[in-house]
Amino acid sequence: MTYRRAAIPALAGGLLLTALLWWAGASVNALHLAGTTEVLGGRAAAELEYWLTPWSYDAPASLRFNAEATDGAGDAAVTDGTRYLSLYTTSMQIRFSALFAVFVPGALLLVRRLPPVRGRVTAALLAVWAWGLVAGMLAATVSAPWSIASRGHGSYRFLPQLAGSSSSGQQITVFAALVAAAATILAARITVKGAGPLPLRQVPARAARLAATVGTAVVALSLLVLSYQPVAASIQTVSLSGRMLAEPGEFLRTWLLLGGWAGPAGAPLGDWLLYRVADALLLAVVWWSLRKLPVLLAPATVPAMAAGAVCATVIGLLARQLLQMALTGADSGMRWGLVQLSGGLGGGVPAALTWGLVAGLLTALTLRLAGGAAADDATAPALPDPPATAPAPPTALPDRSAG
After folding, report:
1. Cβ-based neighbours of 114, under 8 Å, separated by 6 or more
2. CA distances from 192 to 7, 116, 189, 260, 261 (A)
3. What is the 3-state secondary structure of 152-217?
4. Do residues 68 and 80 make contact, with C-beta atoms less than 8 angstroms apart?
5. d(CA 342, CA 174)
6. Among residues 32, 249, 280, 290, which is most buried (max CB within 10 A)?
7. What is the Cα–Cα distance from 243 to 155, expressed in whole angstroms?
8. In the chain, pLDDT over 90 holds for what percent of residues?
9. Higher pLDDT, residue 401 or 248
10. Average pLDDT of the segment spanning 286-309
11. Percentages helix, strand, coil for the chain, rounded to the nearest 5?
12. pLDDT score, position 317
């Protein structure tokens, strides 16, 4: 698929994702209208406000209150309050600009290397959906320093605040990214119409399985080793000298841990094993995706494998979180509403980006080393089979017997 064909769907998806999150942020004030609490319930309305606030251009109530409280305290105080409000506005401008700037190149790469033709539509949809979550997380992270500074205490626990900003607003991004991904793939299906079928790559099965196992082992290191409660507590309590970087524990936990688990002490073994099924599901999704990526990508370049591994890890996280939602809802007898059960959706994307990149790079390297020349041939463009032609009749030799 050419860049020209892939650019149109990527731009359309980026614009739609930006517009959807802007509209979601602008809807925060609707939750404060009279009667909203009676319709949605107080807990659900508060949860939705928590989801939408990170994408709202309206400054938080605490920031507006501080700015208004300085109005009668002199020109200097008024100027400081205005500056804090302008810092918040700048952070939101950077957030939406970064959202568009990150989503479009990633979607362009995915749509071009994973065109939504027959046999690849579902994979392309899931990959672009996952990349929308990564774009939302990176946009929140890039704009976080301005947002933190607007609160007036940017140097206090900077890294924990940065970690919190990186993980904020992901619940609503899950739904907005799904809509944007569907629109992107639909546009890509239109632009790719008329193109010939794209055959699947021939990758040695043993090399593909070995590469997928190596990549999955990297993800398992975070999910099974670093996320074990004693190890996670050690990471959480890491401290460094300095002021702004003195408490990196929360930041490291956000960017390195894909989950959290402990032993079955104090809980029935059956329930404990049932919740571990969600962890096994994440690893199964990652392994299967890494196994199929070299076959589906056209061609399986290192950037495409890295981006695909990140998307596979994010999709595995979503599958794990959906299963945990179902288990929690069944255990609680649906005492919680759907909004409360969905509070964990979209979590862990920073760690998925970190370990997905490492897994993708190691998968590509292992595939190249284990597959040898066969793996190199698998990444080359498939050539059409030569047309079947009847063999030419033998040429008759001249008769030299006469004369």
Report:
1. 120, 123, 124, 127, 296, 297, 298, 304, 308
2. 12, 8, 5, 43, 45
3. CCCCCCHHHHHHHHHCCCHHHHHHHHHHHHHHHHHHHHHHCCCCCCCCCCCCCHHHHHHHHHHHHH
4. no
5. 10
6. 290
7. 7
8. 49
9. 248
10. 92
11. 70, 0, 30
12. 96
Asked if 251 and 281 touch (Cβ cutoff 8 Å), the reply is no
What are the φ and ψ backbone dihedral angles of 228, each rounded to 5 degrees? Answer: -65, 135
Task: Take residue 375 and report the two structure tokens written for it.
Answer: 């793996």
Largest pairwise CA distance in the chain: 127
How far CA 116 is from CA of 112, 127, 156, 306, in Å, comes to: 9, 11, 47, 19
Other CB atoms within a 10 A radius of the CB of residue 383 amount to 7
Determine contact, residues 125/181, Cβ cutoff 8 Å: yes
Instruction: Quote the pTM value.
Output: 0.86
What pLDDT, on a 0 to 100 scale, did the predictor assign at position 269? Answer: 83
Helix axis angle, 269-296 to 205-220, nearest 10°: 130
Closest CA to 25 of 50, 62, 61, 46: 50
- What pLDDT digit, counting tens, does each position of 153-193 carry? 766 788 889 999 998 889 999 999 999 999 999 999 998 87
Q: How far apart are CA 144 and CA 163, in angstroms?
A: 9
pLDDT tens, residue by residue, 345-365: 899 999 999 999 999 999 999
The alpha carbon of 250 is separated from its chain's Cα centroid by a whole number of angstroms, namely 20
